[in-house]
Amino acid sequence: MPRIFQPSYNTMWSLSHSQLPTFCCFLPLGGIIWCSSINLSNTNLSQTNLSQTNLRQTKLSNTNLSQTNLSNTNLSQTNLRQTKMGNTNLSQINLSNTNLSQINLRQTNPSNTNLSQTNLRQTKLGNTNLSQTNLRQTKLSNTNLSQTNLSNTNLSQTNLRQTKLSNTNLSQTNLSNTNLSQTNLRQTKLSNTNLSQTNLSNTNLSQINLRQTKLVIFQNLIETLHIKITVKPK
Questions:
Q1: For the chain, what is the domain count?
Q2: Is the torsion defined by CA of 222, 228, 233, 234 positive or negative?
Q3: Which of 165, 117, 161 is nearest to 140 (CA)?
Q4: Does residue 6 belong to any structural domain of this protein?
Q5: Is residue 18 part of a domain?
Q6: Pairing relationship of beta strands 22-26 and 32-38 according to DSSP bridges
Q7: Which domain holds residue 208?
Q8: What's the chain's average pLDDT?
Q9: Residue 224, domain member (yes or no)
Q10: Which residue in 113, 170, 224, 228 is deepest, having the highest Cβ count within 10 Å?
Q11: Which of 63, 74, 40, 57 is CA-nearest to residue 113?
Q12: Is 138 domain-assigned?
């Protein structure tokens, strides 16, 4: 039988960096079944050479999660599975990821509400065999988002819904997408301000049933992609 307990602050230091109660349920052989954290705050969290293999997260719920000055260096995640991950009022400030490698990442029914990302920097981000199913993003706000050398291989997105997506000062440099497949992608009220795309390369890009409603793009749209999109009439 799984055991449920409220761990001490020392045993949860590596997980939460918080002095607030966190309830988790563990399997006898290891692995987190569910973990619920309320008002979790991480400040100046630095992770170097972090390797995660066969990590499974089920019903991960974060409420009022605040991350400040989060730095990840040489982060490797293999066979990461996230099921029913719900984030409410997630705030990330000065998030820096360097040499982030994600292999066989599976996200099922992730839900993000009121997600705010400020000064997010991603360098040499490589995603291989990334599958996202039933991804819903509501009121996603990105400010000063800079992506450099972003490479996506075999990226599959099914039933992706984005509502009220607002991007301000979005800069993408050397963005390469190979075998990108998007099925039933819905974007509603997508607003981009000061969008800059440099050396954007898309290979074997497949978009099926792509819906864009009230798409507004302002200023400095450097490159415009001419893609044949097949949309079934409704």
A1: 1
A2: negative
A3: 165
A4: no
A5: no
A6: antiparallel
A7: 37-218
A8: 79
A9: no
A10: 170
A11: 63
A12: yes
